[in-house]
From TrEMBL:
Name the record gives this protein: RNA helicase
Ranges of residues in domain Helicase ATP-binding: 98-287
Organism: Zooxanthella nutricula
Keyword Nucleotide-binding: yes
Example of a GO MF term: ATP binding
Domain of life of the organism encoding this protein: Eukaryota
Keyword Lipid biosynthesis attached: no
Keywords assigned: ATP-binding, Helicase, Hydrolase, Nucleotide-binding
EC number per UniProt: 3.6.4.13
Basic and acidic residues bias: start-end ranges: 308-336
Gene3D superfamilies per UniProt: P-loop containing nucleotide triphosphate hydrolases
Region Disordered: start-end pairs: 300-336
Domain Helicase C-terminal residues, every copy: 373-523
Length: 539
């Protein structure tokens, strides 16, 4: 067995607790929309849809052509940092997101961009609120150590670090602003020592950037309080959902006062994401939620003179996400990525066993057969004495928990790692696995990237995700323990991931691996249109 963790935090009863006052509108709204605002949005490839402001305000600020237009809402030191970095004008997303956010709206930005300036579009409104806040950061009470005013959530430690690096640049000279002690950020994520994490929070940073699971653990341990948070930002919200962080995000949202500002960025759109938006964008007094969709490359904003200004980052591409007419382009992009990944993986020599299930009829009917195959496979490995260890991948935390219990019921030593478990529980399982005291470890997608163990000889992909995830997972067993390793892979067709079959066929063919006939049949039917199109909310 293993130490038991928690699956959420108790929400705060804000009716019986005083909320933190904050100034929502830092930038004055115009009385009427500026001439040419609609044309500028169209030229920048931006579509804006807004709910009516509870105060009756219907006007939306148009895109700005310079960061100076955001003064005095944007601190002078932040503007100086932007100029020092070579950013003379905002990117298209920044041009519209920043005035909307600084004028008090919640902003939901739906754009598939690479290097489109989303990091700064998320950070700068947070910095503006931190500069405007009264008083200084400190302890919420004697039991809770840190009490930030702004929190940014991201799905991976890499993105957390990147946001922290950007924040450090913007906040470098913040002591010249309203707060003499300055404004600073701290980043927390799984994989580092608890002592190091607590040290980062020792002086109560005003801005905390974190992965959701780690922040839930810190709140549960009373190492941090969210009672003073007035700004909540979600980076790559679609990946947060894909990594099974929905429960953690909802738990954290319940600990933040209802009257707060929310910014959310996502590359894809779905009904689940829409539900998340409705849940986190809730207010005591009401606020307008503005949706922005981007469909053009993120070039520098073109001022009235027609000459494009410089940009903070290098050249980037931005594609519309979730549009049916982009299906052909998405397929071409997926095939190109598949070829690149296949070439990079050609050296792998591990033994792969690919079992194909067609779930077009019933998504649950194959579970007993999969469990039977899995248990037989693990029993065979458990009887060996060569120290073989197995990583078993599933998509979601509850699935990891259920599967680990089934394996434990067969008297096999198994650990379980997923965001629903407390940090100590996750670290204990990984440590026991590293020491060889556990031969089997079940892990969900949310934490699998953080487990790089050279002693792993076998991998089981119980539930497949993307081609990228598949390649990464089988690579973990490529070195193996005394051999090339082995991967048992369960492929299940789902209409929501209908293109994946073709990508996998192409990948296996590039590696000169046998392609199961059942997999090829599914891929051919999808390519010919014999199998239907994806559900509308997943396009």
């Amino acid at each position: 067995s293993w130490p038991q963790g928690h699956f959420g935090l108790d929400p705060v009863d804000w009716k019986s607790r005083d909320a933190q006052d904050f100034k929502r509108k830092l930038l004055s709204l115009p009385i009427s929309e500026s001439p040419g605002a609609a044309g500028r949005r169209e030229a920048l490839g931006l579509k804006v849809e807004a709910q009516q402001d509870p105060s009756g305000q219907r006007v939306l600020p148009g895109p700005v052509a310079s960061f100076e237009e955001l003064l005095p809402a944007l601190p002078a030191y932040a503007l100086a940092a932007l100029k020092a970095s070579g950013a003379s004008a905002p990117r298209p997303l920044q041009a519209q997101v920043l005035p909307l956010a600084l004028s008090g709206s919640d902003v939901v930005c739906h754009a598939r961009c690479s290097g489109g300036g989303r990091s700064l579009a998320l950070l700068l409104p947070a910095v503006a609120h931190l500069e405007e806040r009264k008083g200084r950061s400190g302890r919420a009470d004697q039991e809770e150590k840190a009490s930030p005013a702004a929190v940014l959530l991201a799905p991976t430690r890499e993105l957390v670090r990147r946001l922290h690096d950007e924040a450090s640049k913007v906040l470098k000279d913040s002591s010249t602003g309203r707060h003499r002690e300055g404004v600073w950020s701290a980043c927390v994520f799984a994989g580092e020592r608890k002592e190091d994490t607590l040290k980062k929070l020792q002086w109560s940073p005003p801005l905390v950037i974190a992965t959701p699971g780690t922040l839930v653990d810190l709140v549960a341990d009373k190492a941090i309080s969210l009672s003073r948070v007035i700004f909540l930002g979600l980076a790559e919200a679609d990946r947060l959902l894909a990594a099974d962080y929905r429960g953690d995000v909802m738990s954290l949202s319940g600990r933040v006062q209802p009257d707060r500002q929310v910014l959310l960025f996502s590359a894809a759109w779905s009904s689940k994401l829409e539900e998340l938006v409705r849940a986190v964008c809730r207010h005591k007094g009401g606020a307008r939620v503005v949706h922005i969709t981007s469909s053009l490359p993120p070039e520098g904003v073109v001022p009235s003179g027609g000459k494009a200004e410089g940009r903070l980052e290098g050249k980037a591409e931005c594609k519309p996400a979730g549009k049916p007419e982009e299906k052909a382009g998405a397929e071409a992009e997926a095939k190109a990525d598949s070829k690149a990944d296949a070439k990079a993986s050609a050296a792998l020599a591990l033994d792969q066993e690919l079992v194909v299930y067609d779930q077009s009829a019933n998504a649950e009917q194959h579970v007993p057969e999969k469990d039977r195959r899995l248990v037989e496979h693990l029993r065979a490995i458990d009887k060996t004495e060569n120290g073989s260890q197995v990583l078993i991948f599933v998509s979601h935390g509850p699935d990891a928990e259920n599967l680990a219990r089934k394996i434990a019921a067969e008297n096999m030593k198994v650990g379980c790692v997923h965001p629903g478990r407390r940090r100590e529980s996750r670290l204990w399982s990984v440590d026991q696995f590293r020491k060889g005291k556990l031969r089997f470890l079940v892990t969900s997608e949310a934490v699998s990237r953080g487990i790089e163990l050279p002693t792993v000889s076998h991998v089981v992909i119980y539930e497949m995700g993307s081609l990228e995830h598949y390649i990464h997972r089988v690579r973990l067993a490529s070195k193996g323990h005394g051999g090339p390793g082995h991967a048992l892979v369960f492929f299940e067709y789902r209409a929501k991931e209908m293109l994946f079959a073709g990508q996998l066929v192409e990948h296996l063919a590039a590696l000169r691996r046998p392609v199961p006939e059942a997999l090829r049949k599914i891929a051919d039917e999808v390519a010919s249109g014999a199998r239907g199109t994806p559900p509308r909310d997943e396009r």
